[in-house]
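User: I want to check something. If I give you two sequences, will you return the structure for each one separately, not as a complex?

Assistant: Yes, each is folded on its own. Here is the first sequence with its structure:
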Amino acid sequence: MVHGWEWGVPMMGLMWLVPLLFLVVLLLALARCLGFWPGALDRGPQTETPKEILDRRYAKGEIDKEKYEEMKRDLNR
């Protein structure tokens, strides 16, 4: 046998996989860049309202009920 010939026939049958995989990766990257993929585009920071921030801080226990009520009154002025 010629050196390397034993791998020639099976490998030739699978050579189409390399360009196919490259094409799939390229299309997935393009889809992500164009926004067709979930979470693809950074929509920037999600802004919370002052009331939502206050509610979150109270829920996390960062402030007590008295401080929460005081700050909520200040927001409603």
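And separately, the second sequence with its own structure:
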Amino acid sequence: MPRVDSGELDTALAFLNFNRESVLKKTEGLDDEQLRRVLVGTGTNLLGLVQHLAQAERNWFGYHLTGAAHVRGPGSGMRVPRGRTTAAVLDDYRAAIAASDAAIRAIGDPEAHLARLVDGQHMTMRWLIAHMTSETARHAGHADILREQIDGTTGR
């Protein structure tokens, strides 16, 4: 649990990063088959969650925050193509996180408005960081359940 309380932006990023790291931790020590294993009716799997979160990082922090062109990553959604390696998916998520953090730090002001409207509304970077923290935490919870079903591992 983050103990950062040195300012609004630092604190918000600490909690977002805690959740990002929680998702990645759930993939540690598993092989490709385990990471791709579908255990629920929706088709969700650990590797698909990571791929989905990489796309969410790009969409929200790239497209909405900075106004960059809408770029689909190498994979989107929960279904990871067979030809896409586990390492590629994990590296892509880490790269998306680094790009998001760079954009956040470059803007620096939580009250800054996003470059693009969200459902017709002007939202702030503060709102976006809170949104992505909750989105990532929700998927970290899904990852907890999937990991427990795979090998019984629980906890962060």
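Because they were folded independently, the notes below concern the second chain alone. The chain has a mean pLDDT of 94. Residues 8-151 form a domain with the Four Helix Bundle (Hemerythrin (Met), subunit A) fold (CATH 1.20.120.450).
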